[in-house]
Amino acid sequence: MEIEKLQGVIEAILFAMGDSVELSKIAAAIEHDEQTTRKIIHNMMDSYEQENRGIRIIELDDSFQICTKPEMYEYLIRIAKQPKRYVLTDVLLETLSIVAYKQPVTRLEIEKIRGVKTDHAVNKLVEYGLIEEVGRMEVPGRPILFGTTEEFLRRFSVQSLDELPTLNPEQIEHFKEEAEDEAQMKLDI
Q1: Which residues are bridge partners to 55 per DSSP?
Q2: What pLDDT is stored for residue 132 in this prediction?
Q3: What are the residues whose beta carbons fall under 8 Å from the beta carbon of 28, sequence distance 6 or more?
Q4: In the 3-class helix/strand/coil scheme, how is 95-139 assigned residue by residue?
Q5: DSSP 46
Q6: What are the CA-CA distances from residue 2 to residues 13, 24, 27, 30, 50 (Å)?
Q7: Strand partners for 136
Q8: Residue 61 burial (C-beta neighbours within 10 Å; 0-12, 13-18, 19+)
């Protein structure tokens, strides 16, 4: 199959599926190896970015998806009124950060780190599609394990969790000191 035809097939697959599609499935569909398929998709991604188009292809953890370019949102809003925009409060962001960096993590582990109940925050993040149940811990009671979703990657514009920023040891020590000071203040009250 010629390259233009392969690109058309890939574009049709990504468009029709709506969500992200694993590289291995795309490769199997076009009957090429994953390396060649990835190269074709990356060429398409470059082409979409250079051309004056309203869509682009993004990569999410070895999967690909067609989506709207951010600069087109204002025009979509005119048609769709107001798309759902979720407000991520400090509490939600703090809980989401714990899940992102510690996953898979239980609700109890999140509560130990935060020092407060997290039912509302965890439920909201599940509702927003940013975290999901990824299994159960093999201990009595079998607590639910939570992890981030593809929507989390999409929302924070990262291809994988490896791209999340890392803290240097000085920052970690500073945060520990702040947490200890805050815990001591609560004890003094």
Answers
A1: 68
A2: 95
A3: none
A4: HHHHHHHHCCEEHHHHHHHHCCCCHHHHHHHHHCCCEEEEEECCC
A5: H
A6: 17, 20, 15, 11, 22
A7: 144
A8: middle
**Tokens coding 89:** 């409060």
Contact yes or no for 9/25 (Cβ under 8 A): no
Q: Which two tokens stand for residue 148?
A: 């981030």
Burial (CB count <10 Å: 0-12, 13-18, 19+), residue 110: buried
The answer on pLDDT for 15 being more than 80 is yes
Q: Which of 59-73, 110-124, 164-178 has the lowest mean pLDDT?
A: 164-178
Tokens describing residue 110: 């999140």
- What pLDDT sits at residue 143? 92
Query: In this structure, what token pair is assigned to residue 124?
Result: 């909201």
> How far is the C-alpha of 23 from the C-alpha of 4, rounded, in Å?
18
Quick check: 187 pLDDT over 70?
A: no
128-147: average pLDDT: 92
C-alpha gyration radius of the chain: 21
Identify the pLDDT of residue 165: 82
Burial class (CB in 10 A: 0-12, 13-18, 19+), 150: middle
Our CA dihedral for 59, 64, 69, 74, rounded to 10 degrees, sits at -110
Whether residue 84 has pLDDT greater than 80: no
* pTM listed for this prediction: 0.57
Distance of CA 162 to the CA centre of its chain: 11
- The torsion angles phi and psi of 21, rounded to 5 degrees, stand at -125, 130
